[in-house]
Amino acid sequence: MSKIRLTKEFRFEMAHALWNYDGLCKHIHGHSYILQVTVIGQPNDNEKDPKCGMVMDFGDLKKIVKEEIVEKLDHAIVLNQKARNQHLFEIPQMFDKIHFVPYQPTCENLLLDFAQKIQARLPENIALHKLKLNETANSFAEWYASDNL
Ligand SMILES: Nc1nc2c(c(=O)[nH]1)N=C([C@H](O)[C@H](O)COP(=O)(O)OP(=O)(O)OP(=O)(O)O)CN2
Ligand SMILES: [Zn+2]
After folding, report:
1. Which ipTM score applies to this complex?
2. Which residues line ligand 1 (CB under 6 A)?
3. What is the pLDDT of residues 1-31, one digit of tens each?
4. Of 35, 57, 58, 121, which has the highest C-beta tally within 10 A?
5. Count of CA atoms in the C-beta half-sphere (13 A) of 106
6. Which 3 state secondary structure label does DSSP give 119?
7. Nearest-angstrom CA–CA distance, 107 and 4
């Protein structure tokens, strides 16, 4: 049976800084990120199933991506763990949504992290096909399953 790709788009506001970077992005600054998540699979052909005709309910995909990524990162600060500093936690009303990650929080590395998190939550019959992350209106990175076999 034929396969179909489904895409859902998410938006979140996130601050980050690139540790040891040689440009302006070494400073804490924010982006309005746009994340497109594309999955691939065969539409359900069981007429008795409420999900008949669907590869995956858009709502189920939304739940996974919101729980794994959007709810955690929206209005958060993401910093390389090399920048970890106890003083930041002394002002919890500003810094209780700070995430230190074991990588440089570039578009590329965020996508590698997102791919792992989404893949771990997808049902067996559905595969992650592609991710696209816009950091600005004219800068984006893409992850393709076919590049990572
Ligand atoms: N390969 C990457 N390069 C850069 C990343 C990244 O994640 N991957 N990130 C940054 C900065 O965080 C920031 O996103 C600036 O990016 P840039 O597109 O250079 O933004 P500008 O506003 O300066 O670009 P304009 O084309 O002038 O709008 C830097 N590089
Ligand atoms: Zn940036």
Report:
1. 0.93
2. 18, 25, 106-108, 135-136, 138-139
3. 799 999 999 999 999 999 999 999 999 999 9
4. 35
5. 11
6. helix
7. 27
